[in-house]
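quick one before i forget lol
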Amino acid sequence: MNIAILLYDRVTALDAIGPYEVLSRLPGGELQFVAAEPGPVRTDNGMLALVAERSIEDVTSPDVVLVPGGPGEVAARAGDAVLGWLRAVHERTTWTTSVCTGSLILAAAGVLAGKRATSHWLALEELGRLGAVPVSERVVFDGKVVTAAGVSAGIDMALALAAKLAGDATAQAIQLGLEYDPQPPFDAGSPGKAPIAIVELLRARSRFAHSPKSTAGTAA
């Protein structure tokens, strides 16, 4: 089981590392970080570098491909190399997945045309504009395409995918090993639960705030 996680400049670290922590524990799994060019890639805050060991040109048949999100997705979905690679590998993958605004890259590649998919809550209108059917759910399966909502939802998606790949018991063992048992100090993890003032603050700060026909946004 060959798993490729795409990296690009200004990717959000947890979008990639959360699923990595889950999927790297799959029996028989072989996981690698890939990018348009091999080498270090800076995350969205510039404080961390992740290393892409291989170029996308060298990875032609991954069983699973995962596309994380982050502010750098704007440039990534404007690049022919990444979009062309995603179109090509998607034809042969067992699963094509994304986390957060990584789904916008998949949509730009045409992978989500007419498919139910999710993204960060502030990017859902942009996702629809790119041809997907936006769904406000944490993890969405549509055929062999799996999309996760914002950032931390990548862990949930990876556990759901681990169950598909290796069975519920293995996925549960991975979850227990990671002690993934969320008990956040605030019940503010979705726009339906957070105070209105906080929701509007994030909207105002968003890079999606001024997108055509969009009222969404964030630092996603």
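fyi Residues 2-184 form a domain with the Rossmann fold fold (CATH 3.40.50.880).
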